[in-house]
Each structure stands twice: as structure tokens, then as C-alpha cells.
Specification:
mainly alpha; single chain; globular; about 140 residues; 5 helices
Length: about 140
């Protein structure tokens, strides 16, 4: 997506959020779930996506979006679909929690900066999920 997050109007931001959620759902259905090995070639991107979901979960609730559970639910679905072992589940969960905690220490009220962070995360989530879907056979 080439648009700068700061230039997105409210309608465009909501569209990006919906697209990101849809792409995550598509990714979960489209990506093969090889459970035999714990490490995957897309782990770095998956961990970053998990971290973003945690940050968005916190920030959207902070900014009264009333959809924060949606992001936690996406994370739960991602873990259920992707997890091969307790260790892998712990790594993915740790990334989500790291994103959540990082932003809970930074923001205690919804500010324009928090809104900008949400917008940037939405754009990055779309880019990450597009890249992950392209890697799926």
C-alpha cells in the first residue's frame, strides 16, 4: 500500500483495518500448516504480525474503538492454526504480549500519536500478510 498512514482519512483507516483483518483471516485459511517442524521460513514475519496484533489490540481499546477483542480473537485463531508445539505457541504469544506491553507503557491516553501508530500498524499488517500469502504454495 503506497499511501502514507498520516494521509488516510477516517473512512480509509477503517477500510485498511477491515482489509488487514480480512487478509489475516485469508492467510490463516490459505497457508499450509506443516506441523512437523517448529521453525518456519516465515517466522520473522509471523512474529512481527503477532506483535502488531498485540499493539493494535491495546491501542484500539485505548482509543475507544470497541473492537479490541477482535484483534485478540485474530491472534487466538492465528495461534490455533499455526502452532506446532507448546514452545512455538509460547513464542507467538510472547510476540503478541510484547506488542501489547510496549504500547501500554508508552500510551495511557488516546492521543493523535496513538492514532497514527494504529494507522501505521494497519498498513504494515496488510503488507506483512500480503508477503506471507505470496510465500504460501
Amino acid at each position: 500500500m503506497s499511501a502514507s498512514p498520516a494521509r488516510l482519512n477516517r473512512s480509509a483507516r477503517l477500510h485498511v483495518a477491515a482489509v488487514a483483518a480480512g487478509v489475516v483471516s485469508y492467510l490463516l485459511l490459505a497457508m499450509p500448516l506443516a506441523r512437523a517442524q517448529d521453525a518456519k521460513p516465515y517466522d520473522e514475519q509471523l512474529m512481527r504480525l503477532s506483535e502488531i496484533l498485540g499493539a493494535v489490540h491495546y491501542l484500539r481499546e485505548l482509543c475507544s474503538a470497541n473492537d479490541g477483542q477482535r484483534w485478540r480473537d485474530h491472534m487466538r485463531t492465528l495461534i490455533d492454526a499455526e502452532t506446532a508445539s507448546a514452545q512455538r505457541k509460547a513464542r507467538i504469544t510472547r510476540s503478541f504480549n510484547q506488542g501489547y506491553r510496549s504500547y501500554s507503557r508508552t500510551y495511557t491516553t488516546c492521543t493523535p500519536s496513538a492514532q497514527t501508530a494504529i494507522e501505521r500498524f494497519m498498513v504494515e499488517a496488510v503488507e506483512l500478510t500480503d508477503a506471507l500469502v505470496e510465500k504460501a504454495p
